[in-house]
Amino acid sequence: MRVVLIAVLGALLAACAGTSGRQAPAAVEEARPGAAGTAAQGVGGQGVQGAALGAGALDPLKDPANILSKRSVYYAFDRYDITSEYRPIVEAHAKYLRAHPDTRVLVQGNTDERGSREYNVALGQRRAEGVKSMLVLLGAQEGQVEATSLGEEKPRDPAHTEAAWAQNRRSDILYPGEY
Amino acid sequence: MSGPASPAGDARAGARLRYNRGSPTETRGAMHRLLARWRMLLVIAFAAVASLAAPQAAAQLSIEITGAGANRIPIAIVPFPGEGALPAPGITAIVRADLERSGLFRTIEVPPLNPPPTEASDVNYAEWRARLADALVLGSVAVRPDGRYEVRFRLFDVVRQVPLGGVAYTMSKDQTRATAHRISDYVYQQLTGVRGIFSTRIAYVVKRGARYELQIADEDGADEETALASFEPIISPAWSPDGKKLAYVSFETKKPVVYVHSLLDGKRHVVANFKGSNSAPAWSPDGKQLAVALSRDGGSQLYLINPDGTNVRRITHSNAIDTEPVFSPDGQWIYFTSDRGGSPQIYRMPAAGGDAQRITFQGSYNVSPRISPDGKSLAYITRTDAGQFRVALLDLSSGQMQILTDGDRDESPSFAPNGRMILYATVIDNRGVLSAVSVDGRVKYRLTAVGGDVREPAWGPFIQ
Fold first, then answer.
1. Cβ B324–A114 below 8 Å, yes or no?
2. Interface predicted TM-score (ipTM)
3. Residue B235 is nearest to which of A122, A126, A153, comparing CB atoms?
4. Residue pLDDT, tens place only, B237-282
5. What residues of A are in contact with residue B300 (Cβ under 8 Å)?
6. Which of A20, B4, B277, B417 could pair covalently with A149 via S-S, beta carbons 3.0-4.6 A apart?
7. Which domain CATH number covers B317?
8. Do A150 and B275 touch (CB under 8 A)?
9. Can you give the residue range of the structural domain that contains B100?
10. From the centroid of its chain, how far is CA B459?
11. Which chain B residue has its CA at the smallest distance from A108's CA?
């Protein structure tokens, strides 16, 4: 089992290094969400005013100036590899989890609305597990992270456009109280 | 596994469904044409009617027919004298709508006749032939001394000038639709040789705003009832082979969990709630186990599990996505979707476990396998070169594939239990609707809900 895990992680790292995680079928669009990373689900900007008074008082997970406030990894159609653009986000959360071993997170994988709902549940699961694997590889404990999937069922943007689909192909790293 | 604990979250199970309402008692002339004479028909008392129906939802599905078969049987259905005493639209209007919807019949306008003929009348075949009818239904409705109703009908072959039998039903007023569907089933079977599906039911999900409702309705969309309402998604309803339960996936705990829901009493329990995702339930033909997709060991893999959540057994061991299992009608095979070859395709494997073989080769995205009731063909969703998702039908022996639909986002095909129609979800004008298409692609109709998106159809089994 461990050997398998290492092999998987090796493949993941290769993916992160810029090569594609697997051969994707035709019709692959670029995932370039317009507001990538800014729309962390369930994380409001309520704490923003406090930032000027002293960063020490601000929850780093909610401080918009902190990379930890970014929670989302975006994907191309039918893909699950974490591109270099999103790797620093996952690294930051891995570091945070390492420093907070009692904190648990839920990684929710999402897909766009195209194709089978059940296949999309599985694809979202694979995306979430990709994030989980990277978090664990970078030092988070296995038990700190649950990967699950919402498939295409909870789109952040319900429109039927390429831009909406790009927003919806996404994994979110969610802390307690955020889901 | 959190076990079969009572479900949490904000989903609400509906009260009992109408299964307890009972069926009209019938005495049918199915024993060939010898039984066609009414004096041979017995009327048997029927079981007590339990009025345990859940409150009706405000809006029911409406039907629009958009395509019909090439050679439709012209049939005259004469209004039954006395049916005005029944709830609108009575009996014959429902029979007419059923037969028209099947795409195999064309109902003929019948002029007012005086005196109106009944099943007991002498039939002037030449007169009906002159009206271009190939078949004729005559009947009557009478109030019984106990306040219930007796509905009788006979079917005639006008071309061959022979009676094709009939049935007498004893029923209460609220069984009017059920009785009409029984008559439609009789006529359909006598004239096409195929069992009718007009008495079957369908399950589907309606999304109204933020609310998801798992609903059960008659096959024509009438008499819908809500089995489950939730503010989180519900997908993949699957009928147990006896039609008494639904398995489905609910996200009410913010992740996919498989439930089994008894339609008799509205009770439900968790079947699979492991870490990760629990999804894609499919019943074995004997109803004794479910195939599901679980990610508890990483990835999405196929497992068998008992309907009570015990005896979990993994049956696929791939590094790929394996999901959407479905049993062949003989229980020997499990068809499923896998991307083990680099793109999602349909495979099959022995139900007991073993090597998988690839079934679909044409196209780069083939998902959602469903096997026809006779086991001979495979319906699934294929993505066309232009990026549309459509219902395809593959003849498993010849390998011949035909695309049956013309939508952009068709999904979730479901065979009628007689194998003649496929119900599926599609999007029209940005609204989710259900459509049905015959396996030859000719007959088409559409079911829409007012103010809601309809999706995830599952056609229920024949009701015994």
1. no
2. 0.87
3. A153
4. 999 999 999 999 999 999 999 999 999 999 999 999 999 999 999 9
5. 121-122, 125-126
6. B277
7. 2.120.10.30
8. no
9. 32-49+69-192
10. 3
11. B255
